[in-house]
Amino acid sequence: MNEITAPSRRVRPAFMRGSAIAVALLLPILVHSVWGYIETRRLNRAIQSIQAKGEPVQLRSEAPVGEAATAARFYRAAAALASPSSPDQRALFAQVNDAERTGEWPDDALSQLRVIVGSHEEMLSFVDRAADMPFEDFGPGTTHSLFAAHLISAIRLSLLRAVVKSYDGDGDGAARSLYSGVRGARWFNRERTWYVLYSVWFTSAVKVTLERSRASEAELERLARALAEPDNDDVLRQTFLTERAGIMREDSMSDRWLIGSRAAPAFVVDRPWHTRQFNRQLAWYAEVLDVVDLPWPARIDAIDRVDYFNLDVQLTREWMKKSVERVVSSLAIVRSVRTAVAVERFQRAHAGQLPASLSELVPSYLPSAPVDPFTGQPIRFSASADAYVVYSAGLNRTDNGGDVAIPLARGSDLGIRVRFVDRERRR
Amino acid sequence: MDELDQLLRRYRPSGPPEELRDRVLDAGRPFQGRRPAWEWAYPFAAAVAALIFYALTDSVERRVISATSNADLEREAAVVQIAVELGGDDVARLQAEHLMRVIESTSRLDGPAQIAASTEELNRE
To answer: Which of left, alpha, beta for B30 (phi over 0: left; psi -120 to 50: alpha)?
Structure first.
């Protein structure tokens, strides 16, 4: 009988089946872990690259110290005293809104405004006292929403006080009020929506002050120094850097994609996806920050051309475009107003004569010829028998002949028109 | 007879397929291969690899968090805030540091924000 020899048997079929099932189950988990690792490494590299450029990866969080802490306390006090508007005041502010747009201040509105300004002297004194102090932010833990609204009311009232004082013939008082208003806006001058709104109020107050009163050269020079701060050519870069640092806040309540969150168990499953999305967002910021130093207005168009991505799906490409326009509009307005103050100072020093061109303002009243961010050309200046206009071509990038009647209108220019209301007194 | 022989030749049953022999023998033989654990090497390797990658991810993520977290700054801000409340001088700063350490060691709090909140509660008391 032949001896039977069989091939050796290595694997039990039952085990074979079990291990195959286990591999099938574990494989997606393995892929998930590798994917998460790759994305997290990418995130780490992106953050190291940001740090290597000296750019912020977190928002400033230091509590103000010294004089800045005192300024913060004054602003807090002012915000606390900025009482909510009564129905009468709301009706008045409807008139004020119209006046700010048209430049015509009815007597009854001015009378009511005097009463309101008078009843807020204490609040305004806090805004004034903080104005000369160094100040950037309120520090961590500040609840911004309601507090911000109250502080903005306080700042606005400071600008409206300039209107009242101008009509009352107190030029220095008006210029000081403007100074307080400009310095008070330091806190939110990087906030697009607020600042563009503020710039309308502020332009109106400066216009009335220049038209109706005669501030001393010392006060105008002080105001001009305050205006130099928001006239920041780097405003877009700073805006995007701040935004990017903001989305990296670990403790941000609004961040659904926040880094390192262990709060939601689902995040463990979603983590590679979230990290990937976060990486896409950082890549978008990197691309945008690469083009924000191009000359004006190429940088505006270049930002728009970057393939848009935002973690927050509600923030559409159109929203981003308008946000950029707001920042640039604010800059154009601030630049125009700053130039108008320089024109005023020139006029004082030259027996009421206007400069033939803005280049005459350099270097005595402006460090360099102001550039219109919407065209890359110098800010425009034109004078007629009854007024002069300093303006940017605005959102349509077309010279509409200094038509600044409707603030922030897409089809018009952006800037300030100063009428020769009382030419003799101005001289 | 010749016819019968011819028929038998024509209808002789064929033998079983070759592999049947091996299968029959294999089924009846006790298991002699390697240890069964070997068969779990693949899933085991996949599980270990997944764990390693999760651990590596956590490690990288901790670096990211430490780079982007405001926790230290917020702690410092909370200390400064307490120091100001206590008078603002060097002694107040030392007291604030001490108070912060006490708060951190006695309360299972995760971050300066909660610490600041609990400090406010202490102050109220």
So the answer is: beta
Contacts of A108 (CB under 8 A, 6+ apart): A95
Contacts of A71 in chain B (CB under 8 A): none
Residues 6+ apart with CB under 8 A from B14: none
Burial class (CB in 10 A: 0-12, 13-18, 19+), A298: exposed
Chain A residues whose CB is inside 8 A of the B55 CB are none
Q: How close does chain A come to B9, measured CA to CA in Å?
A: 26
CB contact under 8 A, B116 and A141: yes
pLDDT-derived band at A292, boundaries 50, 70, 90: very high
**A62/B76 CB distance under 8 A:** yes
d(CA A71, CA A76): 9
Contact predicate A39/A282, CB 8 Å: no
Q: A221-247, pLDDT tens digit by residue?
A: 999 999 998 899 999 998 899 888 878
From the CB of residue B47, how many other CB atoms can be counted at a distance below 10 Å? Answer: 17
Helix-strand-coil percent breakdown of chain A, rounded to 5?
60, 5, 35
Q: Choose among A337, A334, A335, A360: nearest CA to A349.
A: A360
Helix (H, G, I), strand (E, B) or coil at A383: strand
A164's CB contacts (< 8 A; 6+ apart) are A110, A113, A114, A117
Q: Please list every residue in chain A whose beta carbon sits closer than 8 Å to the beta carbon of residue B71.
A: 250
Torsion angles phi and psi, residue A37, rounded to 5: -65, -45
Inter-chain CB pairs, A–B, below 8 Å = 141
Nearest C-alpha of chain B: how many angstroms from A414? Answer: 39
Answer yes or no: is the ipTM higher than 0.90: no
Quick: pLDDT tens for A87-127: 667 777 778 888 887 778 888 889 888 988 998 999 999 99
A151/chain B closest Cα distance in angstroms: 22
Nearest CA among A392, A409, A410, A100 for reference residue A401? A392
Both tokens of residue A58? Answer: 């977190």
Minimum Cα–Cα distance from A261: chain B residue:
B65
